[in-house]
Amino acid sequence: MPAKSADETRTPKAVLEYLIETYGPKDKKFIRSGLAAVRKRVPTANELLYEYNGFFVIAYSSTDHPVNGVLSVAGRADGMSLYFTHGKQLPDPKKLLKGSAGVRFIQLETARQVSHPDVEALIAAELAMAKVPLPSTGKGQLIIRSVGKKKPRAKKK
Q1: pTM
Q2: In what order do the strands lie in the sheet with 79-84?
Q3: Does domain 12-133 have CATH number 3.30.310?
Q4: Alpha helices, DSSP H only, in 80-150?
Q5: Where do the structural domains in the chain lie, given as residue ranges?
Q6: What is the DSSP secondary structure assignment for residue 129, as one 8-state letter?
Q7: How many Å apart are CA 121 and CA 101, to the nearest integer?
Q8: Strands 46-52 and 55-61: what pairing?
Q9: Which of 70, 111, 125, 139 can pair with 37 through a Cys bridge, CB separation 3.0 to 4.6 Å?
Q10: Any residues with CB less than 8 A from the CB of 24 and at least 6 apart, and which?
Q11: Where are any strands of DSSP class E within the chain?
Q12: The pLDDT of residue 149
């Protein structure tokens, strides 16, 4: 039986679930809890879903345009990372941010890291730098921006 593809004919939630299901059991649980932690922190942001070869990214944006994104989460076989659009400009006294480009990241080891005071301070500083602030009320949508039509990668054990 041919593998189903994560294409745009399915609901955005179904596509995200399809992508998450390509991971191993422990990774699936971690990814779901990590995404929930970020969603809890930025409930009014739109989630812009992108699939790349072997991983996916969700950008959190005040609009449906990626240029207004402030945070992103990347789910890969080697874990999850939380990206900060203005990472190079953020105050980082604890030296948590990795990378040398403008966008920097934190490798997440647990979903609870998102609410850690040091990470929360980075998120708050990032949100304060947003060109278009997140709405103060409402709930963001999951929006498919780019999803490939290919076979899923092998599940990690």
Answers
A1: 0.86
A2: 104-108, 79-84, 69-76, 55-61, 46-52, 142-146
A3: no
A4: 117-128
A5: 12-133
A6: T
A7: 20
A8: antiparallel
A9: 111
A10: 155, 156, 157
A11: 46-52, 55-61, 69-76, 79-84, 104-108, 142-146
A12: 58
